[in-house]
């Protein structure tokens, strides 16, 4: 198992690059910093596959590896970049890529207010967790709450080349952070075709390609009393274009645009032991491939209890409907696909143990109804037999960071 | 401390006497034998944990150009969002490990945050490239040594010995 894991060329390239970089940074001062993370997850499901062939045993195909370098030559400039490799069943194969790489310039740096400009490939701030969703120890559990941070859309939503302006303001009782980004989304992910361009009675991916279009995202986050209360609003418009292979419908779609106009509300209360978090997202989806407009709706509520400095546990409920006006998924039925693809509700319970500041071990159990979070790439077979509506999932994750 | 012990014992006895009205004498005796030491320990623990540490925020003397910081400002500096002193110099933040008593006390008393919040905020900034992490030192002696020799440095210690090489920053 271990040998097979290490033999993967992508992983070896990444490990070598990290070792080479850490050797260099060890001699530099603290203005040049290197940080990284590595996590390995084991998944078992009662039915349906998630992150590999999880229903017929234990799947080991969820793995994340990343390293970042940052350099601050003086108080007004920051140069940052991160490379990552991610494995996620059939959805991601571990190909190393640039996660972000940008230059930040402070244009205002007063005692209580700051204004920063960023140019390059920038993480999209969205909700409380999107910007660091790959870094397992920053997540609110083993997996991100799928109702708001759907992993099937992760590659599209995570980071994009563009420019961003960020403002920070501090007052005695509260602080306000806001960010506005313009970018061209990266949409060359086959999973997007299963999500936005499925073809009638067809379990294969559509033959055309998605390309990212000009998009923008904004976020305002308010912290009261040093973050004891956090409230946030994230919004924007993201778009991609479908380029047809030229074959007529129903073999392929015609050219068209898919636009998402999401709004997410975030609220969090942080006590010494207990944190309560709720996020609600609603996105209008204008899909020219089907010539229709629908509304995606998702929310989750989570309680996290830190019962000792090394242990925490959490309980979460989440709910996602791809079309809030068609909760039974009858449109999928009209397409000849499983209606269960249209929604997902889950109870999630988990525990995390941090034996040292570098290591975390987490376990999580999911009781799920629906298949919206499942990739058809992991669940092959004839239509009607690919998904089971009610299923359970168990995950175990080990993380190392530095 | 002996006074505290006497006080906590008296409280425990009083509580046990009240409970004894509802239990038989034998049950109460058994209860007090097992429960009294635990209750005393719990109350002592609460008293000790409520004792505040006299932590001080310290900085490099010649390069920071200020002697006072607001709580919001200190939080922005230790939260790695504010990186520039009013005189334009780069701020270099030094911290102790998350569970170190001086770190916990600085978070709660000076910055009005819990240590886990600071850690979460560093992680989110560092792994999205928006900021750099503070430099972690192993002990208060190392903290004083690094802060006193690094231009623009800020940190904190529990006890300040007469040391002209560091400046105490008043957080108000």
Please supply descriptive tags for the structure shown above.
heterodimer, A: 402 residues, Porin, 16-stranded antiparallel barrel, 5 helices, 18 strands, B: 172 residues, 6 strands, 50% helix, globular, disordered N terminus
Describe, in plain words, how this protein is organized in 3D.
The complex is a heterodimer of chains A (402) and B (172). Chain A has a single domain (108-401), classed as Porin (Beta Barrel), CATH 2.40.160. Chain A has helices spanning 2-6, 9-25, 154-157, 190-196, 330-334; strands spanning 32-45, 59-71, 77-88, 92-93, 97-109, 113-123, 159-170, 174-184, 209-212, 214-224, 229-243, 256-270, 274-287, 292-308, 311-321, 343-353, 359-370, 390-401. In chain A, a hairpin with a 4-residue loop joins strand 10 and strand 11 (229-243). A 16-stranded antiparallel beta barrel of chain A has the order 1-2-3-5-6-7-8-10-11-12-13-14-15-16-17-18. Helix content of chain A is 9%, strand content 52%. Chain A has 402 residues and is mainly beta. Chain A is built from five helices and 18 strands. Chain B has helices at residues 2-20, 25-50, 71-78, 101-111, 115-126, 140-149, and strands spanning 56-59, 68-69, 92-95, 135-136, 153-157, 167-171. A six-stranded mixed β-sheet of chain B has the order 2-6-1-5-3-4, with helices on both faces. The longest helix of chain B has 26 residues, at 25-50. The radius of gyration of chain B is 22 Å and the shape is globular. Chain B has six helices and six strands; from the N terminus they run ααββαβααβαββ. Chain B is 50% helix and 13% strand. With 172 residues, chain B is an alpha/beta fold. The two termini of chain B are 31 Å apart. At the A-B interface, strand 1, strand 2, strand 3, strand 5 and strand 7 of A face helix 3 and helix 5 of B.
Count of individual beta strands of chain B: 6
Span between N and C termini of chain B? 31 Å
Low-pLDDT runs of chain A: 1-7
How many structural domains does the protein architecture of chain A include? Answer: 1
How do the helices and strands follow one another from N- to C-terminus of chain B?
A: HHEEHEHHEHEE
Q: List the strand order in the largest sheet of chain B.
A: 2-6-1-5-3-4
Assign an overall shape of chain A: globular
Terminal-residue CA separation of chain A: 25 Å
- Write out the strand line-up for the largest beta sheet of chain A, numbering strands in chain order: 1-2-3-5-6-7-8-10-11-12-13-14-15-16-17-18
Protein structure class of chain A = mainly beta
Q: Percent range for helical residues of chain A?
A: under 10%
